[in-house]
Amino acid sequence: MSELLSMLECRYPIIQGPIGHMNSPKLIAAICEAGAFGMLALGFSNPDSTKRLINQVRELTDKPFGANLMILNPASVEILEILADAGVKTVTTSAGSPGKIYGQIHEYGMKGLHVLLSAVQAKKAEDSGVDGLIISGSESGGLRTNNPESSTMVLVPLVADSVNIPIVAAGGIADSRGYRAALALGAHGVQIGTRFIATEESPAPDIWKQAIIDCGDGGTTLLPLGKMKIRSILNPKLKKQMEDPSVDLVKEYDFKDASKAWNSGDFEIFPASAGEVSALIKDVKPAREIIEEMVS
Ligand SMILES: Cc1cc2nc3c(=O)[nH]c(=O)nc-3n(C[C@H](O)[C@H](O)[C@H](O)COP(=O)(O)O)c2cc1C
Q1: CATH code at 64?
Q2: What's the structural domain count of the chain?
Q3: Which of 83, 100, 160, 275 could anchor a disulfide with 141, C-beta 3.0 to 4.6 Å?
Q4: Which ligand 1 atom is at minimum distance from the Cα of 258?
Q5: Model-level pTM?
Q6: pLDDT tens per residue across span 19-45
């Protein structure tokens, strides 16, 4: 068994990517039951909602599952303790310096994979004790930096050549071709975001799932948010704004509105986020079918 699979304790090295504040115990359980690694998205969470979500997942599956923590969240250490008490063995960490939290992760006997959006910090993260890395290429859905960034195709082999811990490729993977390509590039597994939004079990509103299906080649853009950017699906309003040089997009959209927009499907308030890989997604399917096709 690979080092990554023994960390995840599941059959396939496929990890559910966290999607902001969006949590569906039903989707997590479906992913775990199909042999992959379902994860709670606890980046914006608090201790009470963490306990509630853990119990809800446990009612649906007895398979191991994980959780993503945002290191910058002041509640992350308390959340980690709750996860450890509940028997969660592996977490992923995003947004923040890994040195701060990995001592605690290891004290609880847990393992952690740290999310990176570029190759420069990979060696440093390895030296600070992370057990693995999730390498997210520029085509990924979700938040991106303002720095020039590389795509998965370049980033994964770059990092694979520079570290000796398991690495997971994220960004641009939706089917067996992407999965096999990621393994060929030197990844030990994959993390999937956009493809799992467009599943029957996903709690995303239908209008978001449909926007992914309708999104073709060149259908996403990087929406500036000031200190960060977010990969977003171009909609008629956003297209019009981008064509008008007098519009300052940073002033038009506030990331604080994202959860309201993503829960309701009102993408006039804040656009839907998804990866470039949306262009390859043609239908809404059960998570199990996606996983079975991916490893076929
Ligand atoms: C709407 C959306 C929100 C996301 N939110 C987070 C997040 O809160 N934390 C995180 O580490 N990654 C986040 N991601 C990144 C995903 O977990 C995953 O790494 C990424 O979607 C992989 O690329 P793909 O969309 O091409 O599959 C988000 C992605 C999307 C599409």
Answers
A1: 3.20.20.70
A2: 2
A3: 275
A4: 1
A5: 0.97
A6: 999 999 999 999 999 999 999 999 999
